[in-house]
Amino acid sequence: MATNLRTTGERHQFCSLQGRGALVTGASGGIGLAIVERLAECGVNVCIVARRVEKLNELKEKLETEYPDVTIFPLQLDVSKTSEEEMLKIPEKVPFQVDILVNNAGLALGTEAVDTNSISDAMTVVNTNIMGVVAFTRAFASGMRERDRGHIVNISSIAGHEAYIGGSIYCATKHAVDAFTRSARHDLRNSKVRVSSVSPGAVRTDFTMTRFKGDVDAEAALYRGFDPMIAEDVADQVIYALSRPMRTQVCDIISLANAQSAARDIHRGD
């Protein structure tokens, strides 16, 4: 006889986030900031990681005022300037147990073709987008496995599933994040550690201004004639993945703006 999940109440089971500990990279703005705010709202203690210490301190004060039962721990760090030994000691610095890791830090620099792009910019993007994910996962996955509990969420992109003109380096790094995420899921399959990725399309954040190196006109042209997603949309997807019942592992969430059918296929209403 089939079990009636609606009757038993199992249909609406979810994993409570209250009182858990998280670490979010790239936490001072954009998608990372939105994720931190949603986690704090859910009662999660959060270690916020970024390079801009003043932004981290402002965020700590704001969230601990709004959510007095939540601990916000700022950690200033630049992965490209941090040794392996220092990375592996990070879990000891956080004043609570981290069983949620959100690898969000990432960037794109420029839109040049492969025969004209900057090697220096490419190295910066590779180190941030790939090595940041690798390093933080290494630092926290071992503890998660030992405790047989944890969730790693990597913020990827539709660029991790497609390729497009002017995106060679960024697309390559996000494809690498996608492959790393899938491999990590294989490595941790014999534990209760879950591994997910979230792959959004067009999202309006300060990420774009970084990519265009402050070119306001280029940013305006990118978002012209359609309504892109906002950072909070992506944060909600992260919360969805984290809050599924333990029997469920969300592998990837791919989302696009309503007018978008692919990375660079956007209907513009003007």
Write the layout of secondary structure elements.
Layout: H1 5-8, E1 21-25, H2 30-41, E2 45-50, H3 53-66, E3 72-76, H4 84-88, H5 90-93, E4 100-103, H6 119-147, E5 150-155, H7 168-187, E6 193-200, E7 203-204, H8 207-211, H9 216-222, E8 229-230, H10 231-242, E9 252-255, E10 260-262, E11 265-266
Parallel strand pairs: 1-2, 1-4, 2-3, 4-5, 5-6, 6-9, 7-8
Antiparallel strand pairs: 10-11
Helix pairs in contact: 2-10, 6-7
Oligomeric form:
single chain
Molecular shape: globular
Strands ordered across the widest β-sheet? 3-2-1-4-5-6-9
Query: How many domain regions?
Result: 1
CATH superfamily: NAD(P)-binding Rossmann-like Domain
Could you tell me the number of beta strands? 11
User: So how many helices?
Assistant: 10
Q: CATH class, please?
A: Alpha Beta
- And the CATH topology? Rossmann fold
The span between the termini is 57 Å
The computed structural class is alpha/beta
Mean pLDDT: 93
Can you give keywords for this protein?
oxidoreductase, oxidoreductase activity, acting on the CH-OH group of donors, NAD or NADP as acceptor, 270 residues, alpha/beta, 41% helix, single chain, 10 helices, disordered N terminus, 11 strands, Rossmann fold, globular
Question: In words, what does this structure look like?
Answer:
- The protein is α/β, with parallel strands linked by helices and 270 residues long.
- The chain has a single domain, classed as Rossmann fold.
- It contains 10 helices and 11 strands.
- The longest helix is centred in the middle third of the chain and has 29 residues.
- The radius of gyration is 19 Å and the shape is globular.
- The N terminus is likely disordered.
